[in-house]
Design goal:
Elements (H helix, E strand, L loop, with lengths): L11 E6 L3 H12 L4 E7 L2 H7 L7 E4 L8 H11 L4 E6 L4 H10 L3 E4 L4 H12 L7 H12 L13 H11 L4 H8 L3 H15 L4 H10 L4
Parallel strand pairs: 1-2, 1-3, 3-4, 4-5
Length: about 220
């Protein structure tokens, strides 16, 4: 059987940020041992990942939350600031609503519990790369319940135009400037123009902060 790379399909490059050596090595073995996947980096801390990950930037990162030093959620914020298009899926033992919500607001595109079976983990990586938002079923239920309980916003408070709301929604869905421009049928320069107005109105300084505020205030 031809490998994904030899058949003309590049493998999905995955980096792992996990402080427990046994789990880290098992994940590396699983990824490198599965056709269509390649582990480009395995890091024991977020600080180590931030210092080295750009040397072999992956398509997607599996990150733990309970790390020594900088925790996974704070690390996601930094990674997304440095590499806005980088996909990050949390892989953790924590299933409380606060951490789930904070991870999503920080820029994570998925949230899996460590008990997720290997086959489902690989499927989730593919799902994230394809534009999805993989979550362990119980996490997905918590997210739905959490957003049901959030009080609807007063959009007029921020005076966002319909076009700005649509652009903000695309960012929440994981689009970058280029793909958002394609979705809206406008140029990247036009997107930049609207983004500046969104930042001013929301009083934020980055896309991740805008997404976090949109989610917290249910602006989209």
């Amino acid at each position: 059987m031809k490998s994904a790379e030899s058949a003309g399909h590049l493998p999905i490059n995955v980096a792992i940020i996990e402080d427990q050596r046994e789990i880290r090595e098992c994940l590396s073995y699983l990824i490198n041992g599965t056709e269509g996947f390649c582990c480009t980096g395995s890091y024991a801390s977020m600080e180590e990942a931030l210092g080295r990950i750009s040397q072999a930037l992956p398509d997607i990162v599996l990150a733990d939350i309970g790390l020594p030093g900088m925790n996974g959620i704070d690390g996601v914020k930094v990674l997304k600031e440095r590499h806005p298009d980088l996909l990050i899926v949390m892989s953790t033992v924590y299933d409380d609503e606060e951490r789930v919500f904070d991870a999503i607001c920080a820029g994570a595109c998925g949230y899996l519990l460590k008990k997720t079976p290997p086959a489902r983990l690989l499927e989730s990586i593919r799902e994230a790369v394809a534009g999805g938002a993989p979550m362990t079923p119980e996490i997905a239920r918590r997210v739905i319940r959490l957003f049901r309980n959030i009080r609807p916003p007063d959009r007029s408070k921020y005076e966002l135009t319909p076009h700005e709301v649509r652009l903000l929604k695309l960012f929440v869905e994981g689009h970058n400037y280029k793909t958002a421009a394609v979705e809206l049928g406008v140029s990247v320069n036009t997107v930049n123009f609207h983004v500046r107005h969104i930042y001013e109105k929301l009083q934020v300084h980055s896309r991740s902060e805008a997404v976090a505020k949109a989610l917290r205030n249910r602006l989209v």
